[in-house]
């Protein structure tokens, strides 16, 4: 694990692997990385907004649970973004198949479940 994290911060190690690819592939990989970072930042902003602006919900501490869940998910997306960027860049340089990931499906499922739970909380609050 520490070796993987060390690689994120050592561009020389990444450039020493394989051969230099067409720069357009590296730039596309970087744009994907930045899109994931924007997603992580949006989730973090949503967590802060939930903590500050959601009214008290019918279940005790539900607002705080929602905020913390969004903050953790945003942090996980940011970490996953840099890991995926590094693994993809390495695969491009080595001419290997790009790494597969279940993370987009997991993230989509987490967001959908979160939206469903929020909808239920809103409906319970509206009825109560």
From TrEMBL:
**Which protein is depicted?**
DUF202 domain-containing protein
Q: List the subcellular locations.
A: Cell membrane
PANTHER family cross-referenced by the UniProt entry: DUF202 DOMAIN-CONTAINING PROTEIN (PTHR34187:SF2), FGR18P (PTHR34187)
Q: Where are the transmembrane segments?
A: 33-53, 65-82, 103-124
Where would I find the DUF202 domain in this sequence?
A: 24-91
Q: Which GO terms describe its cellular component?
A: plasma membrane
Name the principal localization, coarsely classed: membrane
């Amino acid at each position: 694990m520490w070796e993987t994290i060390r690689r994120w911060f050592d561009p020389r190690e990444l450039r020493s692997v394989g051969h230099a690819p067409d720069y357009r592939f590296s730039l596309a990989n970087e744009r994907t990385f930045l899109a994931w970072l924007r997603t992580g930042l949006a989730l973090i902003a949503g967590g802060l907004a939930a903590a500050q602006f959601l009214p008290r919900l019918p279940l005790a501490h539900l607002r705080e649970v929602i905020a913390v869940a969004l903050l953790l998910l945003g942090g996980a997306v940011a970490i996953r973004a840099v890991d995926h960027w590094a693994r993809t860049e390495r695969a491009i340089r080595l001419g290997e198949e790009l790494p597969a990931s279940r993370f987009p499906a997991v993230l989509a499922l987490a967001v959908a479940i979160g939206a469903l739970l929020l909808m239920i909380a809103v409906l319970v609050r509206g009825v109560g």
